[in-house]
Amino acid sequence: MSEEDLQHGGDRFPLTRRSVIEAARSIDAEERERALEALCAAYWKPVYKYVRWRWNRPADVAQDLTQGFFMELLERELLEKFDAKKSRLRTYLRVCVDSFVSNEDKAGRRQKRGGNVLHVALDFAGAEEELSATVMDPALIPSPESLEGFFEKEWVRSLFALAVEDLREMCVAHERERTFHLFEAYDLEDSEKTSYQQLSKEYGISVTDVTNALAWARREFRRIALERLRELCGSEEEFQREARAAFGWDAK
Amino acid sequence: MKFLSDKALERLRDGPETPDLAGTRYRLLERLARGGMGVVYAAEDGKLQRRVALKVLDVPGTDGDLANRLIREARVLAALEHPGIVPVHDVGTLADGRVFYTMKFVEGNRLDKYIETVASFPDRLRIFLRICDAVRFAHARGVLHRDLKPANIMVGPFGEVLVMDWGLAKILRGEVSSGALEADPEATVFGKPKPANIAVDATEISVVTGHGTVMGTPGYMSPEQARGDVEHLDARSDIYALGALLRFLLTGHPEIAPVPGGRRLDKSLAAICAKSTAAAPAERYPSVQELALDVSRYLDGLAVGAHRESALEKAGRFYRRYRFFILLIAAYLVMRVAILLFMHR
């Protein structure tokens, strides 16, 4: 692949997906299941962390509640009841989580749920580590805005992490591991930024190549993240609003 | 799956078009506007702890036409030190390879928004004179703006008028502070080797704005500029745009249109606009100074060069200029006549 192709994002990953809302209303059971999996992949961590933070549940209880919530989503066909004109899917799900946890408390139910219903691997230990690394101001906990803000931030983190994973797979599939490593080293590392010159020395390439590789990876990351986001929205209007929330400015 | 820290999240959020300010003294605050060449952001200068406007290209690279134009714009601005021209602070290349420059952060309104709050013609004409002042200065330094329009004029909170966006500027005689144009940008180039052949001279400019290339804004662009006749452009092309600007200030439109409220535009002002925007450059004012002089004469109640007055118009203007004294004398005469009549009864 030429440098020019890279510049123009040629050979793109086929990512166009159907909205989970549409898929959840499909008569095809497999499609409905795929929709739930996509939703679960993007939302399980925000839901788990939210239950831990907002409802102050111990890790094992939060794990059960998280799995239970997604099962309820399937059993009670909650996605079908979602109206994109009235709210964002993200807000709707958060309200559903609140309602679910509250009802579980009232009913005094707590059942150990089997992990084989959901086909998405839920790395709760990893989520716990992330949670302990997240800085939270306890004084903000009672504020509804902070709850919404927390859920939004975790949702963006989850969405971006999925997009990074997609990008990594894409780079591996097209033998561009070096591009991903550059992206990882410069954009994903938590430490102070290394310079383009340092990367060029480390990888034995010119600074221009580092610049081009990073520009390409960022463009592709954004495209992939937006594709994933589109899948998780019920309408174009919601997509635009959520893209703005995720990226700060208008995402075209 | 990799855990993304808050810092990583911020970087990813920024997206591919957000400039990478790593290694610079600037911190991005918000996006202000998008232009033809790139994007203008509000940024904070960490060293001087002040807000600046940062203009950056969309694409990396220091040797393309756009990069040359942006660097040239910064150098033109640096050479034009005038209170009516936005001052440039810094120019260089970011870590991601994109050329940028920083300039004064201008708080205020674009002219088209600002005049919505300025009702009186004299006040609008005074703003126009300040624009002329800046353009006249640029012409004296051999620079044509070539894109004068309300969107490129800012009016600050203290009434200061600033001419912005010199991206289409043309250097007529290569006289623009040669020191500034040949300055080495290395001192402010971040994370990138010194770009080769970064200095821009008049020859390169003619390539940028080569013959047949139409650059400008319809309504404000002179006919010769609209034809792409770049080689023959001179100060009179900007005078055309200034005439359109004057008409915009008076009527709300750059081209001939009725005055808001159904009033008729004063014949002298209409003549100034018409002379400035004449199709043939030879029929326009020969210099911005001449144009500004005519507008000043109008403000002072004097006859303008662009309009030959009839005796009635002359009398009307004389009356408007000396209305107070005329009314005073008239009142005195009426009183005298009344006293005389009373005495002879």
The CATH architecture of the largest domain in chain B comes to Orthogonal Bundle
Largest two-chain interface = A-B, 40 and 25 residues
Order of helices and strands of chain B: HEEEHEEEHHEEEEHHHHHHHH
| Distance between the amino and carboxyl termini of chain A | 26 Å
Could you tell me how far the N terminus lies from the C terminus of chain B, measured between alpha carbons in angstroms? 113 Å
Per the principal axes of the C-alpha atoms, what is the gross shape of chain A?
A: globular
Radius of gyration of chain B (CA) equals 25 Å
Q: Can you tell me about this structure?
A:
The complex is a heterodimer of chains A (252) and B (345). The model of chain A is unreliable at 1-16 (pLDDT under 50). Chain A is built from twelve helices and no strands. Chain A has 252 residues and is mainly alpha-helical. In chain A, 69% of the residues lie in helices and 0% in strands. The radius of gyration of chain A is 20 Å and the shape is globular. The relative contact order of chain A is 0.14. Chain A has one domain (17-114, 122-247). In chain A, α3 (29-54) packs across α8 (144-173) and α8 (144-173) packs across α11. With 345 residues, chain B is of the alpha+beta class. Chain B folds into two domains: 17-299, Transferase(Phosphotransferase) domain 1 (Transferase(Phosphotransferase), domain 1, Orthogonal Bundle), CATH 1.10.510.10; 311-343. Chain B is built from twelve helices and ten strands. In chain B, the strands form three sheets. Chain B has a five-stranded antiparallel beta sheet, covered by helices on one side. In chain B, strands 6-8-9 form a three-stranded antiparallel beta sheet. In chain B, a hairpin with a 5-residue loop joins β8 (153-155) and β9 (161-163). In chain B, α4 runs antiparallel to α8 (235-251), α4 runs antiparallel to α10 and α8 (235-251) runs antiparallel to α9 (267-276). Chain B starts with 5 loop residues before the first helix and ends with a helix. Residues 177-212 of chain B have low confidence and may be disordered. Chain A binds chain B through residues 123, 126, 129-130, 133-135, 153, 156-157, 160-162, 164-165, 184, 187-190, 193, 195-197, 207-208, 211-212, 214-215, 218-219, 221-222, 225, 246-249, 251, and chain B through 1-9, 11-16, 22-23, 31, 60, 95-97, 191-193.
